[in-house]
Specification:
Layout: E1 3-7, E2 14-18, E3 20-23, E4 26-29, H1 34-40, E5 49-56, E6 60-66, E7 73-79, E8 81-88, E9 99-105, E10 111-114, E11 118-124, E12 128-135, E13 144-146, H2 168-171
Antiparallel strand pairs: 1-2, 2-10, 3-4, 5-12, 6-11, 6-13, 7-10, 7-12, 8-9, 8-11
Length: 183
């Protein structure tokens, strides 16, 4: 097996650590294999879109989700480092409102599977970061929602001590108590 998969504190969220083959020339890593993904992470997933964002230090993107056409996301960093967060926003879940976070970087090659039903976001810790992710559904701007990054009810412990830079839509995000969530 070319990957090690670990369930996070929110068990549906999976940390994926691919095997890295390195030597004096550099490294090789298989970043996605549909057979291994189905066997060790999630059966029946089909990715339809790949995205790439570049952000500078202290940019916070999220916490995003689509209330209709929910997206599963397979995320990774290919340059720099981010702190990546998933929040369970499924009202029927015993983990509703809980979060999990992890450091993703070009150096550690880690990936995270975030299934539909979770809000997702990250903050950049390095000078810049290139963030790549696959999604299981297309982007529908009319269905996009955003959970407030610093909602005290959720209580995410972001590893920054400054006010992050964010898009206007993210700055106007709703608290969990006021947000549209999944059943």
């Amino acid at each position: 097996m070319a990957i090690t998969v670990t369930a996070m504190a929110l068990p549906e969220v999976k940390l994926i650590e691919p095997k890295v083959f390195g030597d004096a020339r550099g490294f090789f890593v298989e970043t996605f294999n549909a057979r291994d993904f189905a066997e060790h992470v999630q059966v029946g997933v089909e990715f339809v879109q790949d995205n790439h964002s570049r952000s500078v230090r202290h940019v916070l993107r999220g916490l995003h989700y689509q209330i209709q056409h929910p997206q599963g996301k397979l995320v990774r960093v290919v340059a720099g480092e981010v702190f990546d967060v998933a929040v369970d926003i499924r009202k029927s879940s015993p983990n509703f409102g809980k979060w999990v976070g992890m450091h993703l970087s070009a150096a550690n090659h880690r990936q995270v599977w975030i299934p539909p039903g979770f809000a997702h976001g990250f903050v950049v810790l390095s000078e810049t970061a290139d963030f790549l992710y696959k999604t299981t559904d297309y982007w529908y701007p009319d269905h996009e929602r955003c959970l407030r990054w610093n909602d005290p009810q959720v209580g995410i412990e972001w590893p920054i001590d400054v006010e992050p830079t964010m898009a206007a839509k993210d700055a106007q995000a709703r608290s969990l108590a006021d947000a549209e969530v999944f059943a």
